[in-house]
Design a protein that fits this description.
CATH topology: Rossmann fold
Shape: globular
Oligomer: single chain
Number of helices: 5
Low-confidence stretches: none
Order of helices and strands: EHEHEHEHEEH
Bound molecules: 5-nitro-6-ribityl-amino-2,4(1H,3H)-pyrimidinedione
Mean pLDDT: 97
Structural class: alpha/beta
């Protein structure tokens, strides 16, 4: 029989940090609501939640990296919304954000979740922030909860 390890979707007293960007606040505030609601519904203690606001998605990796290396948190959830305009500005931001978040996770050894929307239009973002395509803040929080338990079991 194989040894099978699966993350349970139940929090106990784990401290979690959320980094959320203010740019496109109409969207990111909904992602934040989705993430906080998910943490609460999976047994999380809101008193152990730290929410850090940063100006834009580009600033997320630095804050996430500091939080991840602080030793205080079981996971860091990153929330943002990059929406393409008439230039390639969004592509430069997206590349840095995705790579920075992955590096923060790998170098710290804790889950750092990618809940940053990379959309072609505001409509796509609305769909993914509580609209018809769900709420990516919820998905990122759920992935955090699962990975916290997976890491507990394999560490
Ligand atoms: N920041 C975002 O979070 N989303 C965007 O769509 C965006 N656009 O399109 O410009 C954006 N820009 C700001 C950027 O993240 C930095 O805050 C800024 O460049 C200062 O470093």
């Amino acid at each position: 029989m194989p040894t099978r390890i699966e993350g349970r979707l139940l929090l106990k007293d784990e401290a979690i940090a959320i980094v959320v960007s203010r740019f496109n606040d109409m969207i990111t505030s909904r992602l934040l609501e989705g993430a906080v609601d998910t943490i609460r519904r999976h047994g999380g203690n809101e008193d152990l939640l730290t929410i850090v606001h940063v100006p834009g998605a580009f600033e997320i990796p630095l804050a996430a990296d500091k939080l991840a290396h602080s030793g205080k948190y079981a996971a860091v959830i990153c929330l943002g919304a990059v929406i393409a305009g008439q230039t390639t500005h969004d592509q430069y931001i997206n590349n840095q954000v995705a790579g920075g978040i992955a590096r923060a996770s790998q170098s710290s050894g804790i889950p750092v979740l990618f809940g940053v929307l990379t959309c072609q239009s505001m409509e796509q973002a609305i769909d993914r922030a509580g609209g018809k395509a769900g709420n990516k803040g919820h998905e990122a929080a759920l992935a955090a909860i699962e990975m916290i338990d997976v890491l507990k079991q394999i560490s």
